[in-house]
Amino acid sequence: xxxxxxxxxxxxxxxxxxxxxxxxxxxxxxxxxxxxxxxxxxxxxxxxxxxxxxxxxxxxxxxxxxxxxxxxxxxxxxxxxxxxxxxxxxxxxxxxxxxxxxxxxxxxxxxxxxxxxxxxxxxxxxxxxxxxxxxxxxxxxxxxxxxxxxxxxxxxxxxxxxxxxxxxxxxxxxxxxxxxxxxxxxxxxxxxxxxxxxxxxxxxxxxxxxxxxxxxxxxxxxxxxxxxxxxxxxxxxxxxxxxxxxxxxxxxxxxxxxxxxxxxxxx
Amino acid sequence: xxxxxxxxxxxxxxxxxxxxxxxxxxxxxxxxxxxxxxxxxxxxxxxxxxxxxxxxxxxxxxxxxxxxxxxxxxxxxxxxxxxxxxxxxxxxxxxxxxxxxxxxxxxxxxxxxxxxxxxxxxxxxxxxxxxxxxxxxxxxxxxxxxxxxxxxxxxxxxxxxxxxxxxxxxxxxxxxxxxxxxxxxxxxxxxxxxxxxxxxxxxxxxxxxxxxxxxxxxxxxxxxxxxxxxxxxxxxxxxxxxxxxxxxxxxxxxxxxxxxxxxxxxxxxxxxxxxxxxxxxxxxxxxxxxxxxxxxxxxxxxxxxxxxxxxxxxxxxxxxxxxxxxxxxxxxxxxxxxxxxxxx
Lengths: 267, 344
Fold this sequence. Notes:
The structure holds two protein chains of two kinds. By secondary structure, chain A is mainly alpha-helical. Chain A has helices spanning 6-30, 37-61, 69-87, 97-111, 129-158, 160-165, 171-202, 211-231, 238-261. Chain A is globular, with a radius of gyration of 19 Å. Chain A folds into two domains: 1-115, Four Helix Bundle (Hemerythrin (Met), subunit A); 124-267. Helices cover 46% and strands 16% of the residues of chain B.
């Protein structure tokens, strides 16, 4: 079955994420009042196909598949779904799938756009891209936790019964989760950028003039500002949650554009 | 042989009558012995709580005759001579078993869905069992009742949510704070509801209580009772930096906490979340305070509306629970009663 490629497997995974997203709409409407095992298993099934697709791609390339935008986006999605499946082992946190599945579905649809998966050149040297992509996964989860914070906070202020009936975790816990994921993502991104600098310098590349690198530094600076706001000025809560959501939305919307404009990502 | 139930409860009789028919717990085994010796019943369990006095019995007599005898037994045992009408109910199968299941599940309780009655029913049954006043019929019926209660508790929403102001406040606090064990509570105004709310928070592990009141003596008295400390009314704002939850119930005509007063205090608190519970009428807390970041204000109407909504949800579940009970009763009565020999 040579026609059946890793992309087809990934497409099936995205369809399962789409089914989970459709199911999640009903959970959103109900206000997260029940343990949604169905969603967990839909995402687990999607994960199995997803990791198989990544494995096939990785074995065919004989290195970590983060060489083009399709692979990088697939990798971000994998980091998010893996984190969710681990967290979802705790029954009362399983409802988080209702927040994770739309992110996975839209990431998957985006990744499957044909122009994002050009043929590969020779095997690239380890450049820290994988580490940066994991950072984006952590930022994604941080944004999901931030979104949950904003929903619960709004309900606690203006839709009080809904807040009481909801299974969402306490605000303080969501705030801490948002912060920790964002901090860990920031550390990973710092590491990824550091590795990239060293590798490019070794090869005499022009690292700090590349669009993608400049974009990554901008993202890094935005997250640094959020962390300073939080740690130095005690600005946790609503503003921090909005920050996590907005910066990740910016990251999602500009990720592909910066990658396509980057010469060092098309070598 | 069939199961019958006779008794009175909060639904049929006022407390003045219920207390006249209440059984002294220490005397229940002896009373059961007298009842069985009279040959009216073969097996019996007496349930006597503040809200109900009931006898569940397995008898070979026709229900009508058994009811007459049991009614007479109740009247004589309690030496009751005043007129009585419909306060005492009499239930034959299948209604007697249905009633037992409903009682076990909290469906017949004053606070719908409460679980305390299940413990009381288990105690009443264990007491009768221990003194050999139960046999195959009642053993099976009670065991089934306990199973049904568990089933209803886990598979329906009959026990979901808080239906008192104090417990709603605790539930709200648990939606905001990761844990209540490190929380400091400030009680402004030593009223009855604020005391109950503070007690609810303490029972869930709140770390400390500070009480303030215009009459300092009252504050000291309540603080002593709650194991906290009292501060003078003019000084409560100085405690705000460490406070997580404030319960206000003064009779002040104006707002005790408003946005202008709270804004600088929130900076001192480094914007940690603050839960404000306002149970005063007129209100102690300016409503606009709820718009401030990290501040959550609930007034008495909010708390009562949440409690009422929960109650409404529980009431919606009644039909579902009753359906489960009818099926389980049918299941129980349709089976033969193996080992249904009377206790000796």
